[in-house]
Amino acid sequence: MKFGLSFLPDAAPDNKSASDYYRDALDMSVLADAAGLSTIKITEHYGMAYGGYCPDPLMFLVAVAQKTRQVRLMTGCLLPTFHHPVQLASRIAMADVLTNGRLDVGFARAFLPAEFDMLGIDLDESHTRFDATVAAIADLLTHGVASAETPFFSYQDVHLLPPPVQRPHPPLWAAAARSRSSFARAGERGLNLLTAFTIQSDQHLTEQIAIYQEARQDAGHAGRGRVTMLIPLFVHTDDRVARERGMAHLRRYHATWADASTSWRNRSSRAYPGYTDLHRQLEALSAQDVFENGSLVFGDPERVRDHIARLTETFDIDQILWNVDFGAMGREDAISSLSLFLERCLDHNDKTDQAAIRSEVERCEAQNVRLPRPARHMT
């Protein structure tokens, strides 16, 4: 099992400045790279506290690349429905060059009516726009010269510059969260799968992943596809404190998510069955319910290690990306939690650069952040 970090900013200027958010996320990315984690991921949103600090995941990931050496960099996700494929494919290729071929590209359909309204996009067209744009982007990245004719865009013999480093293109992923059709469509397209274990049972998610893999096989794609799961993480030396603080941060995250979803009030779309009044569904989902569902990893290092073992036994997945900054989490809690995870919840091997981890922890401590002292295996 591989591990990485997932960022979905849910902060706003009244509770955390953008400069503080980016500083903390970049510092955590450097810590993750030093510890040998696999991936850093961030998603795209607009105009609200829910994700609004990252309107451009590619720009953030290029910044991470300048401070790291080996960690993969994933958009999780870009929203192709809101972009022209020539522009987005060109920016993806440029980011792949600037990250020296470390880019993974995740796509999502978008789900907030407020964002569609901001950009003048018809909510009911989300499926067809998404499919057309992703196919056009893959074509441009693969062949370098491409043409397209759709109801949404058209072009002839466009030359993509710069060419991406990775051939035929960076690994492509699709997000699926709620519906069976989303998992099936990801498999049919031959994309890798990005999903979350926060709002559904382990049995339901296991069934959805099986649907993805069956659809992928039925469509004739080679291999089973890679599956990455997103899970909130909070670690503290005191198990009770870990649960209390983690739940407090999660409640703030859920409130921000529910507020962003109020644009679903009395609204419906044939492209989003079951989403009407989504904010009420989220308001009714308590943090305690989610915790009891087993989809949160909050606790002391021993409990976290045990929980990871259970997740590994339950799900046939390749990677977990930990949500480590939910609830506009303050710097001290976020970096302390991550440092404990890196030092005491992982089985370090000889390839892990322990000196680099210690150096980064000390750098954060020098910025007035109290962190746990290194575990014995680091000395």
UniProtKB/TrEMBL annotation:
Keywords: Monooxygenase, Oxidoreductase
Domain Luciferase-like positions: 1-314
Transmembrane region(s): none
Domain of life: Bacteria
InterPro entries reported for this sequence: Bact_Lucif_Oxidored, Luciferase-like_dom, Luciferase-like_sf
Pfam families recorded: Bac_luciferase
Oxidoreductase among keywords: yes
Listed name of the protein: Alkanesulfonate monooxygenase SsuD/methylene tetrahydromethanopterin reductase-like flavin-dependent oxidoreductase (Luciferase family)
